[in-house]
Amino acid sequence: MSPQPRPSRFLGAGIGILSVAAAVAVGHLVAAFTGPGSSPFLAVGDTVIRFSPQFLTEFAKTTFGTADKPVLLGGMAVVILAAAVVAGLAGRRRVGRGVTVVVALGLLGLATVVTAPTFRALDLVAPLVSLVVGPAVFLGLHRLARRSSDVEPHGLSRRAALLGGMAAVAVVAVASGVGGLPAGSGLAESRARMTDRLARARLAERAPAIPAGADFAELGTPPFLTSNADFYRIDVALRVPELRAEDWSLRIHGMVDREVTLTVDDLLARPLVERTVTMTCVSNPIGGDLVSTATFTGIDLRDLLREVGVRPGAEQIFATSVDGWTAGTPTDVVMEPARGAMLALGMNGEALPPEHGYPVRMLVPGLYGFVSATKWLVDLELTTFDARRAYWLERGWAQRAPIKTQSRIDFPRGFQTVPPGRVRCAGIAWSQPVGVGGVEVRMDGGPWRPATLTTEVSGRTWRMWTVDFDLAPGSHTVQVRATDANGAVQTEQRTDPIPDGASGQPATIFTVG
Ligand SMILES: Nc1nc2c(c(=O)[nH]1)N[C@H]1C(S)=C(S)[C@@H](COP(=O)(O)O)O[C@H]1N2
Ligand SMILES: [Mo]
Questions:
Q1: Among 237, 212, 442, 256, which Cα is nearest to 357's?
Q2: Angle at Cα 321 formed by Cα 319 and Cα 327, nearest 5°?
Q3: Residue 497 in contact with ligand 1 by CB distance below 6 A
Q4: CATH code for the domain defined by 406-512
Q5: CA-proximal residue: ligand 1, atom 9 (nearest)
Q6: Which ligand sits closest to the CA of 236?
Q7: How many whole angstroms separate alpha carbon 318 and alpha carbon 389?
Q8: Looking at the domain that runs over 187-395, which CATH code has it been given?
Q9: In the predicted model, what is the mean pLDDT of residues 51-68?
Q10: Among 328, 500, 332, 276, which Cα is nearest to 406's?
Q11: 295 near 276, Cβ under 8 Å?
Q12: Helical H runs in 115-269?
């Protein structure tokens, strides 16, 4: 009997990497058919997000912005790669050790899928397939490697068999990973149908017309309406939930007189309203761009809740998305007659884009998104504040979070150099739902001067401002503050976004020269 030579380090590591890659990729491919929630790779990522401490989430958001998810998945790939190399090296002398590491990785994937908030029995298939594929490939390649190193006349062809086997695994892994990316979910067709239905529906309430001079885009402000492509996006979903309108339903239960379950047809049979709303994220720093405006189409949430019958003592509307994210909205705010809270199906003349909550999201003008704007909404429970604690409340953010009166300087930009003479400063301000009453600007600590404002479209939306200064060459500092329609001035007091939104007046240093 020939001795059992161990594969070279290089070969050992290669076998480890290939078997783990095959396991991950095949699991991902199977998940494309059984449900995106069951991809072991994505489930591990979701779990990392779910259990990340607050500071880390904030760090990721501020450092990588919306690239935070690709960065996370890339980081995970590196860690898994390292574990695969460890498995490969450990398995050189004793195959069993390598297999143990591969199985441990598989069990990790299985555990994260099973503990996901959206877990269903069918989700077991993908991680179980991964769990089998990993060790099987590992053992198979080891067998080929052993044989190919036997000193026999057939050595060359056995070597060829090993290389062929490794290449085949690599091809299968890449093909599965790529194949698993776009799951054929019929989402595009579903959205096209919805866009069509919304376009043909009769509106019971129209959004106000946007007048020609609603923005100062030529001076550097954003356009009044943000396009869907440019609308800021914030959520904790690693993969955008793929939920067809045809499969959607919303359960309204808890402290209500009549529990109901509604379909999209039920919603479209109700009077449709169209409202233009400026949305803001509580994480938006002073001067930040997590603020956007769109015209939403949907149904009035207050009307719906009045029909369902809200019981006294139901302090919050606890909303859950299909991927298990939650938000608690104070009931009293939603039930204010002029508030305009809604369940939205359309955004700027089309079905909600998948990343903004298709098919249905909630929206409450004047409340930060984390307490009001649940995307991919599937459940509303009327309950007390004590009974349920929402996702961000659990992580140190506030229970009640009205949007603070805020303003932003869009021109000049920080440290920009502008030509001498007349400098035309411009920016935006918002104070939902009452609206912006005025904006004042001062230069280099001088007197506050009233700015020119665009025509108000609605108290639920932002307003743009501009003011001219004649400036001498040199460094200057411009500062702005908004006043709401009731005369309350935006505070000078600086606070961080956590727990209920940043406050303070923006200031920009720039150069005239
Ligand atoms: N399902 C779900 N809905 C969500 C979130 C989320 O993480 N998951 N984030 C909320 C937050 S913090 C904000 S600011 C808004 C952002 O909505 P947008 O991405 O459409 O701008 O969505 C809210 N709705
Ligand atoms: Mo947010």
A1: 237
A2: 35
A3: no
A4: 2.60.40.650
A5: 235
A6: 1
A7: 8
A8: 3.90.420.10
A9: 74
A10: 500
A11: yes
A12: 125-149, 155-179, 187-200, 264-268
Q: Which amino acid is at 428?
A: I
* Residue 116 token pair: 């996901």
Give me the residue spans of the domains in the chain: 9-179, 187-395, 406-512
CB distance 362 to ligand 1 below 6 Å: no
Q: 392-402, pLDDT tens digit by residue?
A: 999 999 999 99
DSSP string of 220-262? TPPPSSPPTTTS----S-SS-----GGG-EEEEEESBSS-EEE
> Ligand 1 pocket, 411 CB below 6 A?
no
Q: What is the token pair recorded at 168?
A: 């085949």
Contact in structure between 509 and 415 (CB atoms under 8 Å): yes
Q: Are 148 and 157 in contact (CB under 8 A)?
A: no
The predicted pLDDT at position 179 comes to 73
Cα 498 to the chain's mean position, in Å?
A: 18
Under a CB-based contact definition with an 8 Å cutoff, are residues 427 and 410 in contact? yes
Structure tokens given for 507 = 């200031």
- At 425 the pLDDT is 98
Would you state the structure tokens that stand for residue 148, as one six-digit string? 């190919």
Specify whether the CB–CB gap between 413 and 506 falls below 8 A.
no
Model confidence band, residue 183 (pLDDT cutoffs 50, 70, 90): very low
What is the token pair recorded at 224? 């009044």
Q: How far apart are the first and last CA of the chain?
A: 86
The Cα 9–Cα 503 span in angstroms is 57
Question: What spacing in Å lies between the alpha carbon of 191 and ligand 1's midpoint?
Answer: 19
Residue with tokens 């919603």: 267
Nearest to 240 by CA among 12, 480, 492, 37: 37
Going from the Cα of 281 to the center of ligand 2, the distance in angstroms, rounded, reads 4
pLDDT digits (tens, 9 = 90+) for 475-485: 999 999 999 99
Closest CA to 389 of 316, 333, 438: 316
